[in-house]
Write a structure and sequence with these properties.
heterodimer, A: about 525 residues, mainly beta, 20-stranded mixed sheet, globular, B: about 400 residues, four-stranded antiparallel sheet, 2 helices
């Protein structure tokens, strides 16, 4: 890691350091049992998954904050039900259902008093101070999360088919902070109920042309609390219940212009409902935002795919897509450079213009080469910003209209090459060698156009190479794989200027019963 | 034959690739404003709000602030977060607030470009920095989220911390919680003024006494609290202008305890007290009853000009009509501390404040500051001797957080 070193209050150096509070332990047991290929079901499977995680927290949202005592842990029990049946009662009617109930108990612990760490793992102690590293807390969260997805498809004839799907998700959190037992927002119930009902009709008049028309009904019900009139006499926290109902729809069509050249076009008026973490936070670095609403967008995609062969050994696929998206209330993670905390918010008006290209080459079943490149320009299109401070409250001009969004990669790509050999050493074995290359062009941590280029914080250009070797025996019964990620030990970042770990090796063994 | 077929096969992928290359190349061509040769540039810290609600600050040098428009496109030092700016000597110091805990200096480099020097960070945001002597700045950590008060001495040239002195907040007061208003050093004493504000409700229940904490300097040992009941608490929320020092070393302490600057109640008339040079008590013979002179109006911001004259921003609403925290509506004026007079500057329109340290420059008998108007923000140059003003450049920012001039 490349990190600033603090001694006392001075940033004395920037140095290569080891992460020192980064242990992560995780265990999962999964069992599934049931009936397969029966009269009443193609699949009827009951499962249970139990997992436990325990993580030392090294940094907040950026490298500016470093911790040596904060930990979080969680234990989950997840019973699942899977059911599927083709030709359910009637010929052509296929039904599937997937349900999972996830009960998770997690803890966030920041209980050191008056201690601060630097990146060398050295501590400074302030006698008499009760302050935590971030904010003294011992938070326990009990999350209940139920998800269910029902799909039904009905093929009337080769030319007409219908699909219906329904998904339900219910999330409920109970939260308690032993260090701040009276924390007011923890006293209010927090729940999120999302339902989506979708219907699609597919029309295939001939082999060349296929069109799907679809509609979706979204229902969102969020129950949480909100603080009103901050720092006024009327300051109070109240329970709020927000309900949203939206209807999305779209049309997708594809046409073979030549036998090997397919043209695709689609339009969708889409909604994206917020996730529980986005509204309620994670109890540590992600702050809740009770006002977070769904994102709505109008999307146009136009693309083409071209597949061809030279004799029978060389197989090529070329694909290209153009994307235009006009979004309202884009759900966006706000990162303040200086603060370890982030939150999600809606950006009122943005446009996305993107183009991507994809190329694949296959030689017999032995060699494959591929590459993908994406350019996407997401710009802010709001005319006004809303000032919520008590001075000059109201709408003001947005001086960054038309500028690219902060902290969002706009040009990236990847390439891969792989070799596959069958029956190496023994029959039924497969040896795979894969190489992956990733590229992300540098981008700004803030809005793109203001300030001199050399003073702006950038997430530098990133290139990384991963190598993977895997060997399986007995038609996949025994598997062994070794992987080296970030072969050249390059400095890589995730979206928020947080460095990812350097070169790392992984080994995996898998045995299928 | 074959070539036509091939061309057709490849046309689309190549077109897509070309488009990708075109779009990526055209976005990297940016226009950079032409640098100028200016020995004494004006420097403005421009605050721009993003659609995500966050602010980014750009500290930008300008040759001329009296015409055209002032923008940060392609220029200026960028700082995302919350910053308060103050200048000592030839360096502008940015003090991180809210979640930001760093202090950096910005000065003109040998090449005349604005460059950043030093970078220090603290457990909590510094409440303020004041100049102690030619080589030393004094920073203060005082926050309701910490039970310690910390003083940091900072080397003025390298912007590095050379010493820290800390004591429990409870040694100064048991009331919850002291909120910083301002500090000044005079002779061998440091005067620190504060008011009591509840850390969760922000109610101010103690408004009938002016209180200033006195520390020895440079030892920074707490000595005593001096009190006066002729007026209320000194200073207000975030404006950092309650104490000023004249050429004699006398300290003038302003009380305004008004809702627009963070008070939930007012129990005493606003006024100005004095601590005479070398003493550690309020002068019982000096009291400038501001409300009497202004007809019940209160002063929110002060900038010392010289010879007892002060540039002031006066809230034109009576206390019971003010909106809490609004820091407005303000009118520009010049106050004479010695003769106890107030003269309004009529050329400057009544304007909104920004609830923070007044971003104004006093340079060659002129005060420069930005005034928000209905259709944008404009620079005003105020002649403080003749009490006139001229409107200058338009500012392309949501507000101005600092207005400075540097010498090369």
């Amino acid at each position: 890691m490349w990190a600033p070193i603090r001694e006392g209050n001075n940033i004395t150096d920037t140095a290569e350091v080891e992460r020192f509070h980064d242990r992560y332990r995780s265990g999962t047991i999964k069992m599934e049992t049931g009936w397969v290929n029966q009269k009443f079901a193609d699949n009827l499977l009951f499962g249970i998954l139990a997992s436990s995680n325990d993580k030392e927290v090294q940094t907040g949202a950026t490298m500016n904050s470093v911790y040596g005592g904060i930990t979080r842990n969680s234990q989950s029990v997840i019973p699942t039900l899977k059911y599927s049946k083709e030709n359910f009662f009637v010929e052509g009617l296929n039904v599937s259902l997937y349900s999972a109930y996830n009960s998770t108990k997690s803890e966030v612990i920041d209980t050191l008093r008056g201690v601060t760490y630097n990146w060398l793992g050295e501590t400074a102690y302030t006698p008499g101070s009760e302050d935590g590293e971030l904010s003294r807390t011992y938070t326990t969260m009990n999350d209940d999360d139920f998800n269910s997805q029902l799909n039904a498809g009905y093929v009337i004839s080769p030319h007409h088919s219908f699909a219906l799907n329904y998904s339900l998700s219910y999330f409920h959190r109970k939260i308690f902070d032993a260090e701040n037992p009276d924390k007011i927002e923890n006293l209010f119930p927090k729940s999120l109920n999302k339902q989506v009902l979708g219907f699609a009709y597919k029309f295939n008049p001939n082999k060349k042309w296929s069109t799907t028309l679809f509609g979706k009904f979204f229902l969102l019900k969020a129950e949480t609390s909100k603080e009103y009139d901050f720092a006024l006499e009327t300051q109070r926290t109240e329970a709020i219940l927000s309900k949203k109902e939206d209807i999305g729809y779209g049309l997708a069509t594809s046409y073979f212009l030549l036998p090997k050249l397919q043209l695709k076009a689609s339009y969708e008026h889409a909604y994206r409902m917020p996730w529980a973490t986005e509204i309620f936070g994670d109890g540590l670095f992600i702050q809740p935002n009770p006002d977070l609403g769904p994102e709505q967008s109008d999307n146009v995609n136009v693309g083409a795919a071209y597949r061809f062969m030279f004799n029978t050994d060389h197989q090529f696929t070329l694909e290209s897509n153009f994307i235009y998206r006009d979004s309202k209330d884009l759900i966006y993670q706000v990162v303040k450079v200086s603060s370890p905390e982030t939150y999600y918010d809606n950006l009122s008006e943005t446009h996305t213009f993107g183009v991507e290209g994809n190329i694949q080459y296959l030689w017999r079943e032995t060699l494959h080469l591929g590459g993908n490149i994406t350019f996407q320009n997401i710009t802010d299109q709001a005319d006004f910003v809303y000032n919520e401070s008590y001075t000059n409250t109201g709408y003001q001009r947005n001086y960054q209209k038309g500028y690219r969004l902060p902290n969002t990669p706009y040009f990236f790509g990847n390439a891969n090459a792989g070799l596959t050999f069958k029956n190496v050493l023994t029959r039924g074995s497969v040896l795979n060698m894969n190489y992956y290359f990733n590229f992300v062009e540098q981008y700004f941590l803030s809005w793109a156009e203001l300030g001199s280029k050399d003073s702006k914080k950038v997430i530098p250009r990133q290139t990384s190479h991963n190598l993977e070797l895997s060997y399986s025996l007995h038609q996949g019964k025994y598997n062994i794989s070794v992987e080296c990620r970030n072969l050249t030990d390059a400095r890589l970042y995730d979206k928020y200027y947080l460095q990812k770990p350097g070169r790392a090796f992984y080994a995996k063994l898998r045995y299928v019963l | 034959m074959c070539s036509i077929k091939l061309a057709r096969q490849w046309a689309l992928p190549i077109l897509a690739l070309c488009a990708t290359v075109f779009f990526t190349s055209c976005v990297s061509e940016d226009e950079v404003p032409t640098p100028f040769e200016e020995e004494n540039p004006y420097v403005l810290s421009l605050a721009v709000q993003g659609s995500d609600g966050g602010f980014t600050y750009y500290t930008v040098p300008f040759e001329d602030v009296m015409s055209g428009s002032l923008s940060a496109v392609g220029q200026g030092i960028e700082q995302p977060g919350y910053y308060d700016f103050t200048q000592f000597g030839n360096t502008i110091y940015s003090i991180g607030g809210l979640d930001d805990i760093n202090v950096v200096g910005m000065t003109l480099g040998e090449d005349g470009e604005l460059t950043q020097i030093g970078d220090v960070s603290f457990t909590n945001s510094l409440a303020d920095i004041v100049k102690a002597d030619d080589n030393t700045l004094l920073g203060l950590e005082l926050s309701s989220s910490s039970d310690m008060v910390k003083f940091h001495t900072i080397d003025i040239n390298t912007v590095s911390v050379t010493g820290t002195k800390e004591l429990p907040v409870s040694e100064i007061t048991d009331l919850k919680s002291p909120s910083y208003s301002v500090m000044r050093i005079s002779g061998d004493h440091l005067f620190l003024s504060y008011y009591i504000s509840d850390p969760t409700s922000y109610e101010t229940d103690y408004t009938d006494t002016a209180r200033v904490a006195v520390f020895s300097y440079p030892e920074l040992e707490f000595q005593k609290i001096i009190k006066d009941i002729r007026t209320g608490p000194i200073g207000g929320f975030n404006v950092k202008s309650g104490l000023i020092k004249d050429e004699n070393g006398d300290i003038y302490a302003l009380s305004h305890s008004n809702p627009a600057n963070g008070f939930s109640q007012t129990t005493k008339d606003g006024g100005i007290l004095r601590i005479n040079s070398g003493e550690t008590a309020f002068d019982p013979d000096y009291f400038f009853d501001i409300e009497e002179v202004t007809g019940g109006k209160n002063v929110a911001h002060l900038i010392y000009l010289g010879n007892g004259k002060v540039y002031a921003e006066i809230n034109m609403a009576d206390n019971d009509e003010q909106e809490r925290w609004s820091d407005g509506p303000l009118k520009s004026a010049v106050i004479d501390l010695y003769n106890q007079t107030v003269t309004y500057i009529e050329d400057v329109p009544e304007h909104a404040g920004s609830g923070r340290r007044l971003a104004a420059l006093y340079d060659e008998n002129f005060i420069y500051l930005s005034i928000p108007e209905d259709n944008g923000i404009y620079v005003y140059r105020i002649d403080v001797e003749n009490h006139t003003a001229t409107r200058g450049a338009a500012v392309e920012a949501n507000f101005v957080a600092g207005f400075f001039r540097l010498n090369n």
